[in-house]
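Standup notes, structure subgroup. Blocker cleared on the S-adenosylmethionine input:
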Amino acid sequence: MIWLAIALPLLLFLYWLLVITEGAYLGSQVVAWLYDLSAGRYDAIKQFDLNDENYFLALPLLRALNGVRAPIVLDVATGTGRLPLALLRHSGFRGKVIGLDLSRRMLRLAQHKAHHHRARLYFIRQDAAILPFADNVFDAVTCVEALEFLANPRGALQEMARVLRPGGVLLVTNRVNWEARLMPGKAFSNSTLRAMLESVGLSRIEIRHWQVCYDLVWAWKN
Ligand SMILES: C[S@@+](CC[C@H](N)C(=O)[O-])C[C@H]1O[C@@H](n2cnc3c(N)ncnc32)[C@H](O)[C@@H]1O
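Run returned:
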């Protein structure tokens, strides 16, 4: 019985460390490795609804970019290309998107799904901790369902704000409800999030409930 008393908490801890938090406390290479392992199942697990993607992500983003003829968008932690594809499917979007991710296999799937949009969608394998772009270049920067898996979400937000042009829009998600409580330091209260975004030069912050465990957060660069 003593072995059970030792093994059970250890197994629960490992489950939390590797499955629930997807390696987020073990560094970006571990997270990317876990995504490499599960990439082939990602879309089947998530079962994205194209109408939802259009209604909650693409349309509001297009509205926020209203007036920019050919916007340049950076999607950080793009995964299998969910947000770029939602935008590019939309006839009203005339711009280009760069999808950045650290997982080779997630990017390979994204590339495969996006081959019709090769001329307007580019992928780059890179850690979101350091964005390899000059200051003030993107009309929009997005990061959907990923902030909590980054080694330093605050630092990543700072990088996203740096590469966003003045007047540009940031769209990120923040974990909420019980799932947020399982990821201390990776999900934020609304007041903390507002303060963080303001400290990196963003304003007009809007936090809207989206899914059971995610809020959508909009902010504009001053
Ligand atoms: C839950 S998926 C979200 C993917 C996509 N944004 C979506 O909504 O389907 C999280 C993604 O973050 C990526 N990721 C995790 N840590 C990263 C890092 N440090 N730099 C870049 N991408 C990272 C993973 O490889 C994975 O593709």
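Discussed briefly. The chain has a mean pLDDT of 96.
Next: hand off to the docking folks.
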